[in-house]
Design goal:
The chain contains six helices and 15 strands. It is an alpha+beta fold. The chain folds into three domains: 49 residues, no CATH class; 95 residues, Pseudouridine synthase; 106 residues, Pseudouridine synthase, CATH 3.30.2350.10. The strands form four sheets. Strands 9-12-13-8-14-15 form a six-stranded antiparallel beta sheet, with helices on one face. A hairpin with a 6-residue loop joins β14 and β15. Keywords: Isomerase.
């Protein structure tokens, strides 16, 4: 990736070029050190060349999904794919079923491209929606920092039990581990701060459709908070939801918004609601 220096440099031209690079592109210090160690930065005249896209082989075995993986957005820096219900984001050593990581690896294996995208966030196995990947180290460091700084917005929709009070707008309750159940979380005074913003969309006789925005990203946050508020997700047996209509939690990632790691352009990627929900909403309305 060549970049033209904007003015003549004095003294140590290489150090000045690096300072310009950090200011111009926000090059993370960790990546700069890595590039220097791997001789991935070269200065030739007034041109600074960076080897930002060295070939990488994924650590995950390429495995084709039953249905083609839906790519919602892709360029040289980022990838956003739709994660289907029942698919884990990465292997856990307990199952041989293809995970999203295996499916993503298959995309580049099939293309003959040596790219190993790294996921920036996760979704529960039975939650569908968009998952963001970084396609190179530069993007990963920038997007990881954005995630830590709460600069990546994730909006979900959920079908929950009971009619949600329109005045319920924010659930601010710390979440910690449930010492009685290793897979479950619970609201606990000693837990980590967790904030979920709630927007009721539709109300049925004994259920509601809500839009939820995460301010924090705790494990099972939406599921825990809605159950705590008296409205467990439909199908979410782990947190008190009935499986009468659905055998897994009715939770879907509706959109994902983030600043492009190179340009800073605000990107918003939409993921349509599951088609299964059309029938489910009709059942709830009747």
């Amino acid at each position: 990736m060549p970049g033209k220096l904007s003015s003549p440099q004095e003294g140590d031209r290489f150090a000045a070029a690096l300072a310009w690079l950090e200011g111009e592109f926000g090059l993370p210090p960790k990546l700069r050190r890595s590039l220097e160690a791997e001789q991935g930065i070269k200065l030739a005249g007034d041109r600074l060349r960076l080897r930002l896209f060295p070939p990488r082989i994924s650590q995950y075995e390429p495995m084709q999904p039953e249905h083609p993986l839906e790519i919602l957005f892709e360029d040289d820096f980022c990838l956003v794919v739709h994660k289907p219900v029942g698919v884990k984001v990465h292997p856990d050593g307990q199952s041989r079923q293809p995970t999203l990581a295996n499916m993503v690896a298959a995309i580049y294996s099939e293309r003959g491209e040596q790219i190993a995208p790294q996921h920036i966030h996760r979704l529960d196995e039975f939650t569908s929606g968009p998952v963001l990947y970084a396609k190179n180290t530069y993007s990963q460091l920038k997007l990881d920092a954005a995630m830590a700084g709460k600069e990546i917005s994730r909006v979900y929709v959920a079908l929950v039990q009971g009619v949600v009070n329109p005045e319920l707008r924010v659930i601010d309750a710390p979440i910690g581990k449930d010492r009685h159940h290793k897979s479950r979380r619970r609201v606990s005074p000693s837990g980590q701060r967790a904030v979920t913003h709630v927007e009721p969309i539709e109300a049925y006789s004994d259920a509601s459709l809500v839009r939820l925005k995460l301010e924090t990203g705790r494990t099972h946050q939406i599921r825990v908070h809605m159950s705590y508020a008296g409205h467990p997700l439909i199908g979410d047996a782990l947190y008190g939801g009935s499986t009468r209509h659905l055998p897994y939690q009715a939770l879907h990632g509706e959109s994902l918004s983030f600043a492009h790691p190179l340009t800073g352009e605000k990107l918003s990627v939409l993921d349509p609601w599951p088609s299964r929900w059309d029938q489910l909403r009709k059942q709830l309305q009747s």
